[in-house]
Design a protein that fits this description.
The complex is a heterodimer of chains A (281) and B (352). Chain A contains 14 helices and two strands; from the N terminus they run αααααααααααααββα. Chain A has 281 residues and is mainly α. Chain A folds into two domains: 57 residues; 211 residues, MetI-like fold. The radius of gyration of chain B is 24 Å and the shape is elongated. Chain B starts with a strand and ends with a helix. Chain B has a six-stranded mixed β-sheet with strand order 6-7-8-3-9-10, sandwiched between helices. Classes of the chains: A mainly alpha (281), B alpha+beta (352). Chains A and B meet through α9 and α10 of A and β6, α2 and α4 of B. Bound molecules: adenosine-5'-triphosphate and magnesium ion.
């Protein structure tokens, strides 16, 4: 009897904890969702319960977002930059991370740390010299300036992250593949990459998220509103002086976070730890 | 099937010399065991034969073809790693098919060969599983199946049994020998377990600190060790050594028996022995003690089968004997075995 009780108590505790985390993580989304559909008057009245609808839901904020701003254009711009930056990042960071992971001795270590240090220099310092570089290249007010600059953040971080993932892949695996008839490159592509897919997908998501939220470079290098990304366009157009268009802003955030949520959910099982389990021993 | 030759192979890592001027030939269809203590260069030698490591000097020749500068994939070698190195993202079937796919074998033939290899190791029911869903013994079978599936010229096995428990290891050893006989593939097998080496090897190469000390059949290596290292490395407990001037006498504990029960009636030499203690091990008794004059007071061990029921008590002095044919003589300075016959005879006269 007591054993049964203890087990029940443990289950309740476990689910309680889980529910707590889920609530904590889901709350921002709930807030975005409810704010998107609340009338402004409902939103601003402090007498009402802020977590529930008082007035009936409205589509007014969505209408503002899509009709009074060029949100779809911004979304398209962001996706365009995002996809290109992801491609550049993966093309550069995967081979770089692999080489660093397999370079033995002092050099590999030092280079790895050096690359990570560059990631720590914040855009708020770098944007001034980079503005000169962009001007010199004639890319002011062009989305290509962002395509060029964002990898300076994503490549070092992803190289460093992938280095860790590739180090965790036992060398035996590549060597087995080489004996089984592949060249080193083919062994890398057909064995190491699939085994490290969780790391590569993490980089894709990190980079995509970065492009969606980056503000400093976006606001510095781009002037025409038709070239804005979401993270620049939304605060620029939906904050007028001290008037905040909360409903439309939340709608924008919600819509912008959807693609990332979709990507993540497509691959969520790949992120489950222990992917290399069973390779050795 | 091919002859594998290592000609004057050396490998230096920065300061360490892992392999030094090794000459080694595995004959066609032979099961050659590389035996030696940890860190003696067994894995390094094997990796050079596989092409995963470039030798600092020397050539590797397989089937008469110098492959020293060729990449691993062109050598037609299959290796079973100590860790098994199964591809974790593929099923068992995918793992076994991998070497065939890498070589562009047709789908039909691949399927046939995978079935053949799986049947050989009795793992057909595991084909749809992922490596992480297998036990250690099953993983080993998958690794072996993947190695045999493309019928390589040479097998390299690096301590493939070391992850198995004692019981499984015994049956796996048996199967390994069986399938190697059936396929007749030249096999190099690395181990530091001498029982495994003696049981499996057609010949054993004993290595230490990057050098080959002896290559021979299990019997040659055990009965006629080439030097003191081999004499003491093989056998448990190790060979007894007695220093006499510039010669070292060696005899196995099991050939050192009480004189009255010694099977050899003549051609033996008597060694007076003071017993300090004995251990009962079930099938055997180990008797520890010190030799008495005229021999220098050396600690030696006798291994008595339990069915020899001679009383040997601690503190007693007892005459033991060794058959002359079981006496090994080594040069004290170099540790090398001394030539037989003539010298052996003269040593006998000193002894009695
Ligand atoms: N990549 C390397 N860099 C530097 N030294 C190495 C390297 N590989 C091996 N060594 C050294 O070479 C020597 C032989 O190593 P090896 O792995 O061949 O030993 P082993 O006989 O296989 O030992 P074990 O039975 O423990 O597996 C060791 O002293 C080891 O430290
Ligand atoms: Mg080894």
């Amino acid at each position: 009897m007591t054993g049964g009780l203890a087990r029940t108590a443990r289950r309740v505790g476990r689910f309680g904890l889980l529910a707590g985390f889920v609530g904590f993580l889901a709350f921002p989304f709930y807030w975005m969702l409810i704010t998107t559909f609340k009338t402004t008057q409902d939103l601003h009245n402090t007498e009402y319960n802020p977590y529930l609808f008082h007035d009936p839901p409205t589509l007014e904020h969505l209408r503002t977002l899509f009709e009074d701003t060029i949100f779809l254009q911004w979304l398209w711009n962001t996706a365009f930059v995002g996809v290109l930056v992801v491609i550049i990042t993966i093309v550069l960071a995967v081979p770089a991370g692999y080489s660093l992971a397999r370079t033995t001795g002092r050099w590999g270590q030092t280079l790895g740390v050096g690359i990570f240090l560059t990631y720590l220099v914040p855009p708020t310092i770098l944007f001034i010299p980079l503005a000169r570089v962009i001007a010199w290249l004639g890319l002011q007010d062009s989305l290509w300036s962002l395509v060029l600059v964002y990898p300076s953040i994503s490549v070092p971080f992803c190289t460093w992250l992938l280095m860790g993932f590739f180090k965790a892949v036992p060398r035996d695996l590549e060597e087995a593949a080489m004996l089984d008839g592949l060249s080193r490159l083919a062994a890398f592509v057909r064995v190491v990459v699939p085994v490290s897919i969780a790391g590569i997908l993490t980089c894709v998501i990190f980079t995509f998220t970065l492009v969606f939220q980056e503000f400093v470079y976006g606001v510095t290098f781009i002037t025409a509103s038709t070239n804005y990304t979401v993270s620049v366009g939304v605060p620029t157009f939906l904050v007028r002086g001290d008037v905040y268009f909360w409903g439309s802003m939340m709608a924008a955030c919600l819509i912008a976070s959807l693609p990332i949520a979709v990507i993540y959910n497509l691959f969520v099982d790949r992120f489950v730890a222990g992917f290399t389990a069973g390779a050795v021993k | 099937m091919a002859i594998v030759e290592a000609r004057n192979i050396s490998k230096k890592f920065a300061e360490v010399t892992a392999v030094e001027q090794i000459n080694l030939t595995a004959e066609e269809g032979e099961f050659l065991v590389l035996l030696g203590p940890s860190g003696c260069g067994k894995t390094t030698l094997m990796r050079m034969i596989a092409g995963l490591e470039q030798p600092s000097a020397g050539r590797i020749v397989i089937g008469g073809r110098d492959v020293t500068d060729l990449p691993p994939r062109t050598r037609n070698i299959a290796m079973v790693f100590q860790s098994y190195a199964l591809y974790p993202h593929m099923t068992v079937a995918g793992n076994i098919a991998f070497p065939l796919r890498a070589r562009g074998t047709s789908k039909v033939e691949t399927a046939e060969r995978v079935t053949w290899a799986a049947r050989m190791f009795d793992i057909e029911r595991l084909l749809d599983r992922k490596p992480r869903q297998l036990s250690g013994g099953e993983r080993q079978r998958v690794a072996l199946a993947r190695a045999v599936v493309r019928k390589p010229e040479v097998f390299l096995l690096d301590e493939p049994l070391s992850n198995l428990d004692a019981k499984l290891r015994h049956s796996a050893r048996d199967e390994l020998k069986q399938f190697q006989r059936n396929l007749g593939t030249t096999t190099l097998y690395v181990t530091h377990d001498q029982v495994e080496a003696m049981g499996l090897g057609d010949r054993i190469a004993v290595l230490n600190q990057g050098l080959v000390h002896q290559i021979g059949t299990p019997q040659q290596v055990y009965d006629r060790p080439a030097d003191i290292f081999v004499a003491t490395f093989i056998g448990s407990p190790p060979m007894n050594l007695v220093e006499l001037d510039d010669v070292v006498l060696g005899f196995r504990p099991e050939s050192f028996l009480p004189e009255e029960v010694h099977p050899a009636q003549d051609g033996r030499s008597r060694l007076p022995f003071r017993i300090t203690r004995s251990e009962y091990l079930g099938a055997d008794r180990l008797v520890y003690g010190v030799l008495e004059p005229p021999y220098p007071p050396t600690h030696v061990i006798s291994k008595l089968p339990t069915n020899i029921r001679v009383e040997v008590n601690s503190g007693e002095r007892h005459d033991f004997a060794v058959r002359l044919a079981d006496l090994n003589r080594f040069d004290r300075a170099s540790g090398r075995r001394l030539a037989e016959d003539g010298e052996a005879a003269s040593a006998t006269s000193d002894l009695t």
